[in-house]
């Protein structure tokens, strides 16, 4: 799908979109060359998440510099890349999953690592990983 969209963007002469998709394609190809194996769908999601994270970091810097052009480019890149992620979970859904995990395992604040180990595979690629830890702390209170 990524490759098809890249070709469609080239035909439409959408240079910005082509640039973003080529960057992700290059990261995927680099992974396959370095690991000497085909990348899984999960691996592609991780690469896309990494690109989104890097773009968000660059976006924060652009906001500090008040660079409207870079802010617009960053927002566009995030918008394009987000389409390739699995359907995202809401904060309420993740909170429900966390409450269930914590109540079933009768975890305490000391078991933060165990809770994170249990929840992360369930939300990987479907929710912003940086928001999970504060949510667990909020529940454990």
Automatic annotation (TrEMBL):
Record's signal peptide: none
Any single Pfam family the record assigns to this protein: YqeY
Gene3D superfamilies: 1.10.10.410, Uncharacterised protein YqeY/AIM41 PF09424, N-terminal domain
Source organism, top-level taxon: Bacteria
SUPFAM superfamilies the record matches: GatB/YqeY motif
InterPro entries named in the record: Asn/Gln_tRNA_amidoTrase-B-like (IPR003789), GatB_Yqey_C_2 (IPR023168), YqeY/Aim41 (IPR019004), YqeY/Aim41_N (IPR042184)
Protein name stated in the entry: GatB/YqeY domain-containing protein
């Amino acid at each position: 799908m990524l490759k098809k969209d890249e070709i469609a963007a080239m035909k439409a002469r959408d240079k910005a979109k082509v640039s973003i998709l080529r960057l992700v394609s290059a990261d995927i190809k680099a992974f396959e060359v370095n690991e000497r194996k085909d990348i899984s769908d999960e691996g592609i999601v991780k690469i896309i998440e990494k690109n989104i994270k890097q773009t968000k970091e660059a976006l924060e810097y652009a906001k500090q510099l008040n660079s409207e052009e870079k802010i617009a480019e960053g927002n566009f890149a995030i918008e394009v890349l987000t389409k390739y992620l699995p359907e995202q979970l809401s904060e309420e859904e993740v909170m429900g999953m966390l409450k269930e995990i914590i109540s079933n395992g009768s975890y305490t604040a000391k078991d933060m690592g165990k809770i994170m180990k249990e929840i992360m595979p369930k939300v990987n690629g479907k929710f912003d990983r940086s928001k999970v830890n504060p949510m667990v702390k909020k529940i454990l209170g």
